[in-house]
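User: two proteins, same treatment. go.

Assistant:
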Amino acid sequence: MGGGSPVNVSVQTITVGSICGYGVDGTNIEFKCPDGKVFSKVEFASYGDSKGKCGSFVRGEWFAQDSTSIIQNLCIGEQTCHTHVGGTEFNLNMVGSDGSRLAVQLVCDWYDPKISKEQRMKNIQEEIDNEIANQKGPGEGDPYNGFGPPE
């Protein structure tokens, strides 16, 4: 894949299994898991005026709504993935969007060659659905241990 200057791209590894990357408009960015691992989760993905650093990225005032799904489709189940950083790739073509950038944080996990990419995606979705279903609502959970009566 040609084009783009590597000068404005950074890739950083944080906690075990997390890979981060940050690229500006017009560059190419590539992510790679260690041998034997593949990308299993997109912790953050935003093309627009994202801010922050690896482990604490936040969306800015404007961003491409489908950034996460685009990165999921490119990376989940793969050991390496790459994309050109630009409005065309992320379906965001705004006047005055100069200075757009892509911030991504991915998780690498052990690869099981017996499980297809589609099954891994299904397993990830089920895991997310279970986490949501098992979240405790107001008044549920640990007993009150504060000072004074609960309000």
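Protein 2:
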Amino acid sequence: MDVFGETRCWMYSIEWQKRGLPHSHNLIWLKEKIHSTQIDDVISAEFPNPEMDPVLADIVKKSMIHGPCGNFHMNSPCMKDGRCSKKYTRQLIKETQTGMMATQSIGEETPKMVDAQQK
């Protein structure tokens, strides 16, 4: 089943970062256009609850979150000409934004703790 509708074609690349897990960059062409709210229905990001799973919460904090950089750590590898080359820190947005030839942003609400046993 195609989550966003019928796929016309796709491609991906797997990257291994120095400090973390592998991740993929995906490019998917759909037969029909989708609305950004459809993306929000399928993709989300949540922090694990440190009281329920302190080991996982610590792994996420150390391996999956960018920073600190900027005034907190000017020698961070991401810093170029006094600014973060990854454009952090960023404002949280409530909904995914899409546009022609633009960097896509996945909407996030204020980070919340999750009880993995409730899922």
